Amino acid sequence: MFALVFYGARLTSTFFDRRLEIYGSAYTSSSRLERIRDNSGKTILEAENPESGSSQTYVLGTRLDITDDYTDPRKGLRLDISGWWSPPRRVKAPDYYIMEFNTTGYIPIGERSTWVFNYFRSAANIIRKGETERTMIEQEQGLDCGSIEDPKQKRFCQQVIDNVIAANTYGTASTLGGRSRLRSYPQDRYSGAHTLFYGTELRWNLTEEFTPFNIYIMKDIRTSLQAAFFYETGSVADVQSELGNIMKSSYGAGFRMVTASGIIFRADVATGNEGTETTIIIGYPWEPF
């Protein structure tokens, strides 16, 4: 389990009535390993004085939008291409950049509803490998896997070290699991140097309206209410040739409120082979942050 702090900013230039966008972002995050837990949530080992890692991430990207509506598309195509780079925070950290491709197609169903399809690909490109010596990584993470007597728990601890070695060797692309992709899994459940994702979602518009609302700190105009039904599948791998060998899936349903200001309030419930997760957040899934 990691403790994480995150903040950032984004600047976007738009052209041709938002058909074309060029954007740049800068984010700062810090994290540290607090403890290792098994699949049931039971604590296996507490980290002792782990290093706190901070990083800056810079993003440059472009979006081509040929849909009928920027906020709530019913038909058309949207393509995002972006590059991500985080300067190494220490000498023995890996240095790599990430290229991402995100394509979403919208097919109208009847007069008000939409069938959405998404393809996402993320790939880390290593410039320089990081630390791969196990003892050094254990010290950085504040772990002592050799002190664990239970064989199963010891394997969990060693797997954490293996994951760090893989990340330092190949880099880490965008993860799967959480609020946007493979929503039935915890945030960042699957990670690797390469990520592949397919998703489809039926957005059924229950109403189309123009209704003002004022709920405590939320004041806007409701333009539609939606029910959504979705299916997602994806794969991660450190070696590109292995991408797609193991696929994980999730499916579920959700409810959305679309507003005139462009804010979408979203609630989803998703199920997969590791259980059920609930998401309550602002914004459609599969959209770049």
Overview of this structure, please?
With 289 residues, the protein is mainly beta. 10% of the residues lie in helices and 56% in strands. The chain contains two helices and 13 strands; from the N terminus they run E-E-E-E-E-E-E-E-H-H-E-E-E-E-E. The two termini are 23 Å apart. The model has no long low-confidence stretch (mean pLDDT 88).
Shape: globular
Largest sheet: 11 strands, antiparallel
- Summing up helix and strand content along with how strands pair, one would put the structural category as mainly beta
Tally the helices. Answer: 2
Summarize this structure briefly.
The chain has 289 residues and is mainly β.
Tags for this entry?
289 residues; mainly beta; two-stranded antiparallel sheet; 2 helices; 13 strands
Task: List the topology elements.
Elements: E1 2-15, E2 20-33, E3 35-37, E4 43-46, E5 53-67, E6 76-85, E7 95-109, E8 113-128, H1 134-141, H2 151-170, E9 194-215, E10 218-237, E11 248-259, E12 264-272, E13 275-282
Antiparallel strand pairs: 1-2, 2-5, 3-4, 5-6, 6-7, 7-8, 8-9, 9-10, 10-11, 11-12, 12-13
